[in-house]
Amino acid sequence: DWLSFGPQLGRGASGATVLRCTQSARALQTASAGADGTEDGTVQCAAKVLPLSNAIFADMVEDFGREVDLLRSLGRHSCLLGFFGAWRLPAGSCSLKSAQITCEAYVLCIELCDAALEDVVQRRCSQKRAFAQHELMPCLAQVSTGLAYLHSRGVMHRDMKSANVFLQHDLPPGERLQAVTKEDFLDLPLHELRAKLGDFGAAKAAERAQTPVQTPQFMAPEVCRQEAPYGLEADLWGFGSLLHELLELSVPYGQELTFPELEQKLLAGVPPALSDRAGAEQRCPSLVPLMDSCLRADPAARPTAGQVVEELARMPSLSAARQPVAAAAEVAHSGGTG
Fold this sequence. Notes:
This protein has helices spanning 25-28, 58-74, 94-98, 117-127, 133-152, 182-186, 221-224, 233-248, 259-267, 277-283, 287-294, 305-314, 319-334, and strands spanning 3-11, 17-23, 43-51, 83-89, 105-111, 115-116, 155-156, 165-168, 194-197, 204-205.
């Protein structure tokens, strides 16, 4: 009864279900330091639950275990989604009954956020409201800082995209998600939100990265060519693809491209094009060149994640965005946690 599950938040490709979860005092004793607790001593979080039923394959269990091991090794960082603990719960436990799960299950508890960046992109696309540079810079600074921290630990993310960037509003602990509706949250200024890089299910030690990631539109050419092992530079192509997604309000290469057509472009090292490059350069004059540098076909010609953080900190920007960008750069240099 020390874990209580709530509504479903999503499903993972590994067969796991993501549920809203409340951790009580017992769980907090083994949870990572820094969790935001409520007045009653509980923590609201997101739980990835993998039921150990006959429908679950052995490789799904292995992948789940690797993700837990990776999260434990990373520790806490202000620009990464927080890890609060993992457990194997027996069948019939009160916690699993609250989620209507009848068999034993693995549970991984992570930080609860208000939305994914992908939700904001889709909202802005439906409103036909392109981002201005000052709106994007704090978010990009925080994402690149999280990526730089991963790389400093020898870990590749391997699935950089807006769906794996999570957003929070700076409200008191326990008030997130209740303070505003989901739609109201998506209309908040992006530069006033805190961005955290998450979903480490595809992450892997750099020296062992040999298989493609799951999202082909964000895949680096060398990954598509299966030039194993590929390096940290593939994540910088992913970061450039994320930046393209934010400028275009659509997935790289567009929705209409067939997979063979996409594969042909990737094998040739052709980056995604902006449909209105002149407009993007007018709105985001410093970010378009940064995108171009990350989307260079030659991996060795791309900047490192640390260099991206430094470049963002040097960019001219409106005062609304300047302070968070500078703060993220300071965290990247110090390797500090939040």
